[in-house]
């Protein structure tokens, strides 16, 4: 059976943008003010590189394609094509992740072009932060064998908006549909695994491996880039030599850094200068050339009135805030203290001459590529240690204001706060002085901003090795104690960092408590093997403590064993799971006999866990029925005493009892139990 063609056309209406699939099916992409827009994607014609030589950032920008797509990525292209064309997949979601400068955007663009050539319709989803406030939807038409939707910077989408994107009817037209997400951290997709499974989507996470992992590959990448840059400069590329440490330098694992080295070598040769070495010195060299371009515009272009120092501050602001609507752009410049309000309009106009906005009606286009922009932020702050790149004392206080807002801001933190914090964190990962001098103090003073920015930024904060541990300790009390899917990965990452720090000076009871908490956080984040390791270690410590002092530590041992049983069951290790769970029941039954008021709820929970573990894999269902029945009976008594405290537990235990009855073929009884559960749920 052949795949039906997709026929998409968009039209503006009072309720948003409407697409039509094959037949009469209509799909609404968004309602009124959109969280995102899906639009047709087409390859862009790159500019003549000879027109870009005054701006290194433009020569390096992925969308300008000055350096051709490398054949070293052909295997990645083939693998993506196989994923796209797999006939067993209806809707499939893939997260392609890797550090900045690895080539994710270039690979996705090439894959988009490949997919169009293969007969697929290709679209790009852009978040509202990339769109002008009143930007009307544009009519779109496409036909194809299937639909490929690409989302770049997926880690910067708010969780609720990305979740809405997954549920959009555009992805469920009955035709092969692929959603390719690009992000730096691999944790981006985890919070949505349940949603994706519920929707019946296949989902996977793939790391983009370095193409520059071998010396021969690095030399090839350098030569290809140097030839293209030499053409732009009008010089002979045959005399351009790579850095002496190209084959061994860790920084050259990133294609972008090799391109930067090639551009510096060509530019230095054209100017009869000596090319610097080291990735930080490469960035500093290129950024000085960027500043030279600003000087040239100021001196030679009529109507361009912004001096380089003020333009530098404007570029710093733009790189942090990302593109903004016009009014927000004015506000950002004044918040950062770049200029007075009456001068901001001219500043935005001059900045747009240097960095034309890619989206109409937006201002403050960032300095790209991202890595170069992050290096620009780092080199503005004192303490970077790179010769010939003076810092700007304005920067630290200005960046803080951009993230926190000013005292006069009545509306709270500014709308670009999360974006600015994201860029600062990425800069801090590679520049220790950014972490020590700015990020750590900021998070100690305003830890709630990190939590408000979302789980992805929080997880990246935990990746900053040079961040002061006190900053994470300040954030910890602001993390929700209950399960929060969007923050689960970040909570696990922060807990791991704090646990590692605290274990160095912890006694045995504290060690067991820390490991148990870490195990729970890792389990919530879906890191089952790591969670099992931490929880097993916690149980071992509690067992030693309980042997020496049963009265004090047997309750903790039982709790740890209960958690261990659940984790072992999740990993399919049923015999071990039952051993741990049975021991927890034994301990808690003994404790409940001595102190019923204190330990009856714990016994009911362990019985519920035993029933759930047995039922999860249809394991010894008669024994599961005994445990489930007793658990419900005990929770019923507790519910009668304190309804609000135990209604949730009783509802859960009733659900497990119904599942056991179904497994035993006693469907009528299961229906009655679920009716009781549903009645209690309605009361909540």
How would you describe this structure to a colleague?
The structure is a single chain. This protein is α/β, with parallel strands linked by helices. Helices cover 57% and strands 8% of the residues. The protein has 27 helices and 13 strands. The protein has helices spanning 56-60, 74-85, 104-117, 159-167, 193-199, 215-233, 255-270, 279-300, 308-321, 326-336, 341-354, 370-380, 394-404, 417-430, 432-445, 447-453, 455-462, 469-475, 488-503, 508-524, 528-548, 550-570, 574-594, 596-616, 621-641, 643-663, 667-683; strands spanning 8-9, 11-13, 16-20, 26-28, 36-40, 91-97, 121-127, 141-142, 147-151, 177-183, 202-207, 324-325, 362-363. The strands form four sheets. A six-stranded mixed sheet has the order 5-7-9-10-6-11, sandwiched between helices. A three-stranded antiparallel sheet has the order 2-3-4, with no helix packed on it. A two-stranded antiparallel ribbon has the order 1-8. Strand 9, helix 4 and strand 10 (177-183) form a beta-alpha-beta unit. Helix 9 (308-321) runs parallel beside helix 13 (394-404) and helix 26 runs antiparallel to helix 27. It is elongated, with a radius of gyration of 29 Å.
């Amino acid at each position: 059976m052949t795949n039906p063609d997709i026929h998409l056309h968009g039209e503006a209406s009072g309720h948003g943008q409407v697409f039509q699939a094959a037949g009469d099916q209509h799909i609404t992409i968004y309602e009124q003010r959109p969280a995102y827009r899906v639009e047709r994607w087409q390859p862009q014609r790159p500019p003549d590189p000879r027109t870009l030589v005054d701006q290194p950032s433009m020569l390096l920008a992925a969308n300008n394609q000055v350096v051709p797509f490398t054949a070293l990525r052909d295997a990645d292209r083939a693998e993506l094509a196989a994923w796209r064309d797999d006939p067993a997949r209806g809707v499939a979601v893939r997260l392609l992740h890797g550090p900045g400068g690895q080539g994710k955007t270039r690979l996705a663009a090439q894959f988009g072009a490949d997919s169009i050539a293969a007969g697929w319709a290709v679209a790009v989803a852009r978040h509202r932060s990339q769109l002008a406030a009143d930007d009307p939807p544009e009519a779109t038409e496409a036909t194809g064998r299937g639909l490929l939707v690409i989302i770049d910077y997926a880690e910067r989408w708010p969780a609720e908006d990305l979740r809405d994107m997954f549920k959009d009817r555009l992805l469920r037209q009955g035709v092969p549909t692929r959603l390719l997400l690009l992000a730096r951290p691999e944790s981006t997709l985890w919070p949505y695994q349940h949603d994706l499974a519920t929707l019946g989507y296949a989902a996977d996470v793939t790391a983009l491996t370095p193409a520059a992992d071998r010396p021969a590959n690095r030399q090839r990448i350098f030569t290809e880039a140097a030839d293209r840059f030499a053409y732009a400069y009008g010089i002979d590329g045959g005399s351009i030599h790579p850095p002496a440490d190209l084959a061994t330098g860790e920084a050259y694992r990133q294609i972008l850094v090799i391109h930067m080295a090639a551009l510096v070598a060509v530019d230095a040769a054209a100017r009869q200068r000596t090319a610097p070495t080291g990735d930080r010195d490469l960035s500093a060299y290129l950024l000085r050339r960027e500043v030279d371009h600003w000087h040239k515009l100021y001196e030679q272009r009529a109507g361009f009135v912004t001096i380089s120092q003020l333009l530098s501050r404007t570029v710093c602001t733009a790189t942090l805030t990302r593109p903004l609507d016009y009014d927000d752009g004015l506000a950002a410049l004044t918040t950062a203290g770049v200029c007075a309000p009456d001068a901001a309009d001219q500043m935005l106009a001059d900045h747009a001459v240097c960095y034309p906005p890619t989206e109409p009606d937006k201002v403050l286009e960032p300095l790209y590529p991202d890595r170069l922009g992050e290096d620009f932020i780092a080199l503005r702050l004192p303490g970077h240690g790179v010769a010939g790149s003076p810092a700007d004392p304005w920067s630290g206080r200005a960046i803080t204001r951009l993230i926190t807002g000013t005292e006069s801001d009545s509306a709270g933190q500014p709308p670009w706060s999360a974006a600015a914090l994201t860029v600062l964190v990425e800069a801090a990962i590679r520049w220790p002085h950014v972490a020590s001098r700015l990020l750590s103090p900021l998070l100690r003073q305003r830890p709630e901003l990190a939590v408000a920015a979302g789980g992805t930024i929080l997880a990246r904060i935990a990746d900053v090795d040079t961040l002061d541990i006190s900053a994470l300790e300040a954030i910890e009390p602001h993390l929700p104690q209950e399960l929060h899917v969007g923050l689960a990965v970040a909570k696990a990452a922060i807990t791991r960092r704090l646990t590692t720090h605290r274990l160095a000076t912890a006694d045995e009871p504290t060690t067991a408590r820390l490991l148990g908490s870490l195990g729970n956080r890792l389990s919530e984040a879906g890191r089952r093997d790591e969670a099992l390791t931490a929880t097993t270690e916690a149980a071992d410590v509690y067992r030693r403590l309980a042997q020496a002092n049963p009265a004090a530590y047997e309750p903790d041992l039982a709790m740890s064993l209960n958690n261990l049983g659940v984790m072992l069951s999740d990993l399919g290790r049923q015999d071990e799971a039952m051993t741990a769970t049975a021991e927890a029941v034994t301990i808690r039954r003994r404790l409940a006999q001595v102190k019923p008021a204190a330990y009856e709820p714990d016994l009911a929970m362990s019985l519920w866990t035993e029933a759930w573990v047995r039922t999860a894999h249809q394991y010894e269902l008669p024994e599961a029925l005994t445990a489930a029945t007793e658990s419900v009976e005990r929770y019923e008594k507790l519910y009668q005493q304190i309804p609000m405290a135990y209604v949730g537990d009783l509802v859960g235990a009733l659900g497990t009892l119904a599942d056991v009855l179904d497994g035993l073929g006693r469907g009528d009884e299961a229906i009655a139990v679920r009716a009781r559960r549903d009645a209690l749920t309605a009361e909540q």
